[in-house]
TrEMBL record, chain A:
It comes from Drosophila grimshawi (Hawaiian fruit fly). One of its GO terms (molecular function) is copper ion binding. It comes from the Eukaryota. Component of the cytochrome c oxidase (complex IV, CIV), a multisubunit enzyme composed of a catalytic core of 3 subunits and several supernumerary subunits. The complex exists as a monomer or a dimer and forms supercomplexes (SCs) in the inner mitochondrial membrane with ubiquinol-cytochrome c oxidoreductase (cytochrome b-c1 complex, complex III, CIII). GO terms for biological process: ATP synthesis coupled electron transport. This is Cytochrome c oxidase subunit 2. Component of the cytochrome c oxidase, the last enzyme in the mitochondrial electron transport chain which drives oxidative phosphorylation. The respiratory chain contains 3 multisubunit complexes succinate dehydrogenase (complex II, CII), ubiquinol-cytochrome c oxidoreductase (cytochrome b-c1 complex, complex III, CIII) and cytochrome c oxidase (complex IV, CIV), that cooperate to transfer electrons derived from NADH and succinate to molecular oxygen, creating an electrochemical gradient over the inner membrane that drives transmembrane transport and the ATP synthase. Belongs to the cytochrome c oxidase subunit 2 family. Its cofactor is Cu cation. Keywords: Copper, Electron transport, Magnesium, Membrane, Metal-binding, Mitochondrion, Mitochondrion inner membrane, Respiratory chain, Translocase, Transmembrane, Transmembrane helix, Transport. The chain crosses the membrane at residues 27-51, 63-87. Binds a copper A center. It catalyses: 4 Fe(II)-[cytochrome c] + O2 + 8 H(+)(in) = 4 Fe(III)-[cytochrome c] + 2 H2O + 4 H(+)(out). Its main location: mitochondrion.
From TrEMBL, chain B:
GO terms for cellular component: mitochondrial inner membrane. Belongs to the COX20 family. Keywords: Membrane, Mitochondrion, Mitochondrion inner membrane, Transmembrane, Transmembrane helix. The keyword Membrane applies. The keyword Nucleotide-binding does not apply. Its main location: mitochondrion. This is Cytochrome c oxidase assembly protein COX20, mitochondrial. It comes from Drosophila grimshawi (Hawaiian fruit fly). GO terms for biological process: mitochondrial respiratory chain complex IV assembly. It is found in: Mitochondrion inner membrane.
Amino acid sequence: MSTWANLGLQDSASPLMEQLIFFHDHALLILVMITVLVGYLMFMLFFNSYINRFLLHGQLIEMIWTILPAIILLFIALPSLRLLYLLDEINEPSVTLKSIGHQWYWSYEYSDFNNVEFDSYMIPTNELANDGFRLLDVDNRIILPMNSQIRILVTAADVIHSWTIPALGVKVDGTPGRLNQTNFFINRPGLFYGQCSEICGANHSFMPIVIESVPVNYFIKWISNSVNS
Amino acid sequence: MADDAEEPAKSFVIFGRDVSQIPCFRNSFLYGISGGIGVGVLAFLGSSRPHLSTHIGFGSFFCGTIVYWMACRYHWSTRRFEQQQLQEAMRRQALYEGTKVERELDLKSA
């Protein structure tokens, strides 16, 4: 999860997020090397005593600094496109979760299972336990099975919200009157936190999302208890 | 066990990220930096021109790091994919062992 002064991506909990991290490392190394090259060229200017007042063009160097960046961009674009299409692959989800954004809380529905529904409000700081996470913990977490394809349908009841879980690489806008769908796969148990990612009013920063990923049999037990209660 | 004899790799944290855990990172920079220094020194020995040798050394570092990184990441990616395919195949073999599905798959592959 995110801690203070967190600069990088969170540890992945999904194969797609893992691939996003790999691509991020790849692109960042290329960018760092280009920055080092430009820094070196600028530094060398201090030691350059050549002057040519009549310099107009240089065909060879212009060819080099056109073709070389094009080749470098190709090495960034190809993995990027591979990942883009990988993110859009169709899977067969085993669970569907509906998420509705409100001002300022989320409500969730598990329509596969006799309409299990609940609201999820942030726990205010003055009611937070000593071991709780300020502005992140909620009263009712989303319980989802691990190692299963999950489909999520996101919408909103009033203004645009955005449902986000950085550890899963998921960010989906919830727009009133529209259903947005995405799939994800959680490959380890644990708690995964996110926050609303579209400005939605005064308490936009105070409507977090928490997923509790559990083994399938625990999920079945929880959903049975929820249906019965 | 072989795993107990291995020493854990030293962590190298930059801006909160342990870069020693990034596949191919360490080797890319080791080969790039050492290759750049080596080629730069050789260029200076051959030409006795410090500026030119510095440019050649830096160019070798730049090209060496990027080329090694691209090749290493590609091979790592293909090996990882094959490893995942193998893991999935082993999982399915354990799942279908002794069942009708396994017999049908054996007939198909025979």
